[in-house]
Amino acid sequence: MKKIVLLIALVFSLPAFSQGVSGGGVIVHLGSINEILLFRVSGNTESNRPACAITKRFAVHKDSVHAPLIMMAFANGKKLGSLRGFGTCSQHSNAEDLRWFEICPVTGC
User: What is the CATH number of domain 2-103?
Assistant: First the structure.
């Protein structure tokens, strides 16, 4: 019984270790579908992206505090610093849900 409980705990904790990390770059694709913004970053390094994020995109709801900042960064060609995802694809089936990101200042990241 203890082994079963341990196995269940391990399975449910795995998504916590698969939160995607992207090390900067520029947004090269921005699209929307059903109130969700989808964007892809180029010129970055990535690690721990979940298997569901096969398009290498991130997803954010249009009403999120992130949405206008993502659109502004895309429109102005601003370089992004780090991005981090939740490790899930609940907003769109093939794009990782965005947890946080940073826009680089004029002086660089």
Answer: 2.40.50
